[in-house]
Each structure stands twice: as C-alpha cells, then as structure tokens.
Specification:
By secondary structure, the chain is mostly helical. The protein has helices at about 10-50, 55-100, 100-115, 120-130, 135-145, 155-170, 180-205, 210-240.
Length: about 240
C-alpha cells in the first residue's frame, strides 16, 4: 500500500481552525458564564429582599445590559492590549535582529544548547537560524519570549462574542420571572442556571481536555456559590432594611 503524502498546508490550516475554535469557545464561556452567574446572584438577592416581580425584572434587565456592555469592553481592551504588547516586543526584537546583534546570536546559541545541541552541530544550527532574518525573528519571539502571533484574535470579534454571550447568559436566570410567581421563579432560575452551567462545562471538556462531569460540576458549583451569596445578602437586607 502506497504511503499517503503528508499535506503540510492542510495540516496547518486544520491547526489554525482548531485555534480559532478554541478562541471562540473561550470567549463564549467567558461571556456566558460571567453574565449568567452575576445576574443569577443579583435576581436572587433582589427577589429575596423584595418578593416583587417587577423590581426583580427591572434590576435583572439593568444588570443584563450593564454586564454585557462591560464584558464586551473588557474583552476588547484586553485583546487589544495583548496584540499591542506582542507587536511592541516584535518591533524591539526586529530592530536587534536587523542590526545583527551579537547578543541575539548568543541567545540563539544558548537556547539550542539547552535543547542538547553542542559542538559543530550547534554552530551549524545557529548559523542557519541567523542567516534568515525572518526565521531568526520568529524563533526569538516564540522560543525566547514565548509569544505567539495573535493573528486570529480580533479585538472587535472577541468583544462581540463575549458581549452577546454575556447577554444570552444573563437572560437565563431572569426568564422565569416573566411567567412565574417570585418564589417559583427563584427555583426555576437556580435549576435552569445549574443545568446550563453543567452543560457548558461538559461541552468545554469534550472539546478540550478533562472529565466532562467534573468540569460540568465545577462550573455548576461556581454558579451555585453566586446564587447562595446573592440570596443570603438579599434575605438579610430584606429583614434588616
């Protein structure tokens, strides 16, 4: 049987697609989990303090819009800061590589020495790397600074995904208050939020690594902690105030 030819371009495209999917998953979970957990704590706290559906809905919607916009803004600024940091470091390294800095050459030598290279083989590798400025620069960014080019991380795209996910996640614990009495709606919020968090954790584990049920329980536990905290604060204030 003929050996199948390795398609490098296809392999790189598949890896790039996996990275993009990982970024999408990260942003979706970040926004969705944050929106759901925060609003869950707020609506339970307000419901426990007032037992008034109208007040809970107003507080929940206010928190939903504020949370979504805040998360989108944070995602935008953090992603942009990460990109700016990378390119700032890139320009510094590029200047040193363009000038053929002896220090940069010695850094390449030391990095390969740590990998077990020595003697003539080490010098041949160093010479090969430093003979091509693009290869040399990419090597220094990846091996010395441990920085990967943020080509797929668009600040606008990240902000949109995080913001929309936070908005959708925030509506989950609020939904029950539109068609159920306050006490039943509180139970509905807790149960639906727990189910969604568990499912999100399980999906995350399936697409990445780890036990699906452990990750699901972990995310659910975080949400329930927020629910208990929100309810406790609301219950205390409802009695005291």
């Amino acid at each position: 049987m003929a050996k199948k030819k390795f398609d490098l371009e296809k392999h790189l495209a598949e890896e790039h697609h996996e990275l993009e999917r990982g970024g999408l998953l990260r942003d979706s979970i970040l926004g969705g989990q944050d929106g759901l957990v925060n609003v869950l704590g707020i609506v339970l706290g307000v419901a426990a303090a007032t037992l008034e559906t109208r007040v809970v809905i107003i507080a929940g919607l206010a928190a939903t819009f504020a949370e979504s916009l805040a998360m989108a803004a944070v995602a935008y600024t953090s992603t942009k800061a990460e990109r700016d940091f990378y390119w700032n470091q890139y320009e510094k390294e590029k200047k040193e590589v363009d000038e053929g800095s002896p220090t940069e050459v010695e850094e390449v030598r030391e990095l390969y020495r740590r990998k077990g290279f020595a003697g003539k083989l080490l010098e041949d590798v160093v010479k090969k790397i430093t003979s091509n400025k693009k290869v040399w620069l990419d090597f220094m960014m990846h091996e010395e600074l441990r920085l990967d080019r943020p080509d797929g991380d668009s600040p606008t795209k990240s902000a949109f995904i995080v913001g929309v996910s936070a908005f959708i996640g925030s509506l989950i614990p609020l939904t029950g208050f539109f068609f159920l009495p306050v006490v039943q709606a509180m139970w509905f919020s807790v149960i639906s939020a727990a189910a969604v968090l568990f499912a999100a954790g399980a999906i995350k584990a399936k697409l990445t690594i780890g036990s699906w049920w452990k990750t699901g329980l972990e995310m659910m536990a975080i949400g329930m902690l927020a629910a208990i905290s929100g309810y406790a604060v609301g219950a205390v204030l409802g009695v005291v105030v």
